[in-house]
Amino acid sequence: MTMNFAELAPYFSDEAKAIEFIESLMWPDGAVCPHCEGRERLSRIKANPEKRVRHGLWKCGPCRKQFTVKIGTIFEGSNIPMTKWLMAIYMMCTAKKGVSASQIERSLGISYKAAWFLCHRIREAMKRDPMRGLLGGDGGIVEIDETYVGGKARNNRHKNKKTAGQKAIVMTLIDREGEARTFMVPNTKKATLQTIARPVVSGSAHIVTDEHLGYHGIDKHFASHHTVDHSKTYVRALIFHTNFAESYHSLLKRAIIGTHHHVSQKHLPRYLREREFHWNLRSASDGERTVEAIKGAAGKRLMYQKPV
Ligand SMILES: [Zn+2]
User: What are the structural domains, with CATH classification, of the chain?
Assistant: First the structure.
């Protein structure tokens, strides 16, 4: 599916079409009742504004309950039209440096608070299992590096006093031929860094890091370990560098500082998932990323409000 803006545009303006589009992605084999998991005798209830019956309502014959495609997803409990959800998802899947909540607020004509929740829910949809596949399989090269993010006290002094001004430490593991994984870590001690790396990286991988002591002895768990040493020969520097990890970190900082200005440590992991989503789907089209995010919306209902 190579959906571009023009192909997606009808879904941004017609609520019934928007819902049918979401349904086609969430229910590829047809509608499913979330109450009894039945697929038989499900009927669509016709939208009727006078009776306050909205688009997307279904009724299950066997269990007699009503449902929509939004149940159990990031969309559940939201009164924002699906057309606007789709626009927000498309905007976030298109912008390489991220989209701020105030940009979503202006573009969609919703409140800042609604835009903020929308953005966080969409980040949740972008989240993938960090253990979904090992990095550096078949003897690939995996770069590992850490960076410090945020922490300008003057920008966040009204926030949590304990963490105000503190920089968060982000550890990135990146397969040169494949995906990246990022983690917020409490420190850069050997035990911390290596405990994270071991289950995420294949034993056959060749590891490249800087000369930080936290990586000493990591070669015991992997095929080899090389450190970046700028005094070594040019040929060596062609292979043993951490340029991928460094450019990943510069993109991350540009998104966080340039677009969001400040991100609290509490919310940073969600922004990391968003950057990871973009990097890992960097060769996909904007439309393909949009479809991926929508599919990821399932099973991620957030408890911002009490469950009904
Ligand atoms: Zn049912």
Answer: 5-129+288-295 (no CATH), 137-266 (3.30.420.10)
